[in-house]
Specification:
Blueprint: E1 8-13, H1 19-31, E2 35-40, H2 50-57, H3 75-82, E3 85-91, H4 93-101, H5 107-114, E4 119-123, H6 127-131, H7 133-144, E5 148-149, E6 153-156, E7 162-166, H8 170-181, E8 191-196, E9 201-204, E10 207-209, H9 216-227, E11 231-236, E12 248-251, H10 255-265, E13 271-274, E14 281-283, E15 302-304, H11 308-314, E16 320-327, H12 331-341, E17 346-351, E18 363-364, E19 366-370, E20 373-376, E21 380-381, H13 382-397
Parallel strand pairs: 1-2, 1-3, 3-4, 4-5, 8-11, 8-13, 11-12, 13-16, 16-17
Antiparallel strand pairs: 6-7, 9-10, 14-15, 17-19, 18-21, 19-20
Helix pairs in contact: 1-2, 1-8, 3-5, 4-7, 9-13
Length: about 400
């Protein structure tokens, strides 16, 4: 683990049953040498007493906006100005919503708006609340503004339900703090081209053929690669996700448009990751006008689309190519065939017939396959899968991870 001495961290604790885990996180950060200042919402104090954090940090705990400042400077400005990082754990739907809306009505929300330091947010809430469209819109807005989320885990929740919403483990949270303060720089100088999302193949001006891809996996890889120092070109089909900060986004719609965009930018890239779910077929003769419903059967003549990764594999040179295989049966066998046929260096395989992973989900369970064999990974957030894929890529490139200190 990293030495966090001389690092000043604000730990925001909000009102949820997971607040007791914040004490474990706080203790671990202090043991690593960090100077931790705890800011609690009023509701958080109903779950854990301020005296607990005061004992762990040897610092006064801030619980209200109207407390007298410890110094001659205004606390809600001076403390976040001096912080190296702000961590909110646990973060309720309430604090996420307030931050997304720019509301500052207590000390923690005020500090979050006043700080210029990196902000890490570790949500914890009921699974239905976490899946709520308004909560996810707030999360996506904050991600687009540069806030980093430590995705909640799946499992049994305090309410007795099963699902995603449980606070990430203290170990995962501390690791995220270290990664933010000492980010990996192992892809600096590398251009990574990533395709993501579905394609849409027009039937007529109002209808199209597509698939269930949300783009979440490809966007997670783009974000992770950018965090690790890469120049990232993201070629994306139609999705409802905000572009990760700092990446070059190229928006396309059809498989033909995606192929053209890849071919145009392929010479710039050293690594190509084909995470897009490209349609296998397109309409041979799409209607120029809306096809009217007549009540009878409609026959559509389909033609195969180009295989973008296979074409890149034919002329890849010294580029490293990573493909994806979404399968419903014979996962490893089918993925290995694609690996060889398309001249890929790595293929990431997942069984999309399993509920809760793959298309549209925030979690995935994959096997990373290369010519040496298959490495099955446990079920994990797509953000963690992204880093696992990049770790394997870096291993094949022969480089070692470097941290900025």
């Amino acid at each position: 683990m990293s030495n966090l001495s001389q690092k000043r961290i604000i730990l925001g604790v909000t009102g949820g049953i997971a607040a007791y885990k914040a004490a474990e996180v706080c203790s671990a950060l202090v043991k690593l040498g960090a100077c931790v200042h705890v800011v609690m919402t009023e509701h958080a104090t109903r779950f854990v007493g301020p005296v607990t954090f005061r004992a762990l940090t040897s610092q006064a705990v801030i619980t209200g906006l109207w407390e007298e400042p410890q110094e001659h400077r205004i606390t809600h400005v001076s403390l976040p100005e001096s912080a190296d990082l702000v961590l909110v754990a646990p973060a309720t739907a309430n604090i996420i919503g307030k931050l997304a809306a720019g509301i500052a009505d207590d000390m923690l929300s005020t500090m979050l708006l006043a700080t210029t330091a990196p902000v890490l947010i570790a949500p914890a809430m009921n699974c239905n609340m976490w899946a709520n469209n308004q909560v996810q819109e707030n999360v996506n807005r904050l991600k687009s503004l540069g806030y980093t989320f430590i995705e909640p885990e799946e499992g049994r929740l305090a309410c007795g339900e099963e699902g995603a919403g449980r606070l990430a483990s203290p170990e995962t949270i501390v690791h995220a703090v270290e990664a933010s303060l000492f980010p990996l720089n192992d892809f600096e100088g590398t251009t990574v081209l990533i395709t993501a999302g579905p394609t849409e193949e027009a039937i007529d001006p109002v209808r199209f053929i597509t698939n269930r891809s949300s783009g979440k996996m490809g966007y997670a890889i783009a974000r992770a690669a950018k965090e690790r120092g890469a120049k990232v070109i993201l070629i994306s089909g139609p999705v409802s996700l905000p572009a990760p900060p700092g990446v070059e986004l190229v928006s396309v719609r059809s498989a033909a448009e995606m192929l053209s965009a890849v071919q145009c930018r392929l010479p710039q890239a050293q690594v190509v990751i084909g995470a897009a779910a490209v349609a296998d077929y397109t309409l041979k003769n799409p209607g120029k006008n809306k096809i009217k419903k007549t009540g009878g059967n409609l026959t559509l003549e389909l033609a195969p689309t180009a295989d973008i990764m296979a074409e890149a594999g034919e002329t890849k040179g010294d580029k490293l190519l990573v493909g994806f295989a979404a399968e419903t049966e014979n996962l490893i066998e089918n993925a290995q065939k694609k690996l060889k046929k398309k001249h890929l260096d790595i293929i990431v395989a997942n069984d999309v017939s399993k509920p809760g992973i793959g298309f549209g989900a925030d979690y995935n369970q994959v096997s990373i396959i290369d010519n040496t064999g298959a490495e099955p990974l446990p079920r994990m957030p797509k953000a963690e899968v992204a880093h696992a894929i990049l770790d394997r890529i870096k291993k094949l490139l022969g480089g070692k991870a470097k941290r900025r200190c």
